[in-house]
Amino acid sequence: MARAFIAIGSNLQQPQLQVAQAFEGISRLPSTQLINRSSLYRTAPVSYEDQPDFINAVAEVETELPPLELLQALLSLENAQGRERPFPNAPRVLDLDLLLYNDTIMHTAEHTLPHPRMHTRGFVLQPLAEIAADLVIPQHGNVAMLVRQCKDQGVEKLAD
Predict the structure, then answer these.
(1) What pLDDT, on a 0 to 100 scale, did the predictor assign at position 49?
(2) Which of 88, 96, 89 is nearest to 70 (CA)?
(3) Residue 95 is a catalytic residue
(4) CATH number, domain with residue 37
(5) What's the domain count of the chain?
(6) Looking at 92, 103, 134, 148, which residue is catalytic?
(7) pLDDT tens readout for residues 58-98
(8) Domain range for 32
């Protein structure tokens, strides 16, 4: 079984509900078990700012699916919840990003592991630190250390 981490984000169509449905969908993926989940976090948009705030979270799974099969399963979940891609960083019903898959370092046309920008994004690091603070992101360092460098990014933990 591989250990993988998945970032979850939504800022359209009841984002908290979309994230809850994403956790449920992840828990039903074949050969995959949801091990842990972070709290929800409210985050201002990055890059394209003329859109609603996001609700973000991170899921930890154990899976027998290879990385690209897991990625395809996540894309299918996005599509099932109505994900559209009109332009980069557009508002979205659901965004699922495969962040880490064991200690795999991979660069393909389909995906890069670890996720290439996760180590600079508070909306990924804060929920990740909540469930796996001792985790090391290959080529970047410890999550607990990295999250301290992103404290001023306007990420707010929501009450449970």
Answers:
(1) 83
(2) 96
(3) yes
(4) 3.30.70.560
(5) 1
(6) 92
(7) 999 999 999 999 999 999 999 999 898 877 878 999 999 99
(8) 2-117
